[in-house]
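Action item from last week, closing it out:
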Amino acid sequence: MNVLAIETATEACSAALLVGSEVIDVFQIAPREHGNLILTMVDGLLNEAGMTLQQLDALAFGRGPGSFTGVRMATGVIQGLAFSADLPVAPVSTLTALAQKEVNSGEGQTIYAALDARMGEVYWCEYVVEKGRLKAISEEVVINPNEIIVEQGKNAIGIGHGWRAYKEVILNKVAAQSIELQADQLPRAKEVAHLAIAMIESKQTVSAENALPVYLRDNVAKKKAQQ
């Protein structure tokens, strides 16, 4: 299966091309440069593989939550590519893509994914590794770190820069016996591509016009206006 994926929901910009079981990707931390980079990344990957859009089986993108500008950009780019090549789209959770980095950490492993949402909040979701795959055990939310409520666990992995921004607050709320922090990790397109495979196989793809972003914080404009 051939899948092209992009992820631009944070300060990192990345694209990945999955061809069969092999993946090639490009990743760059470049705040506010995503618009100048993402299509160049896509073209570069296709050229490297000697492929065209028409040879793909599907597209995938990090549909958020994350930066409003970044999520909106990924949505617009993927819709344009999907329309031009008449391809189905797998909208992949950015938080799940982040947690996917630790999917091989062991059966039953708890993973807390947190991205800094600014305004004193984080994008948050809890996962457990079950039969080699991630299972969300909470809803995705945008939340004040002081309001996080989780069941006490024996051990866990905390991943994402939300942990860096609010480390002490979240640690006090999680209260795990031991926690491994991966606070510098950011979501990446190659994990988006791998997660897309299961969505494609289970027919969870959508058409270009239905490839929509997930913001969680719909009232961001109002909050900014009040600051």
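Closing note: The first strand starts at residue 2 and ends at 7.
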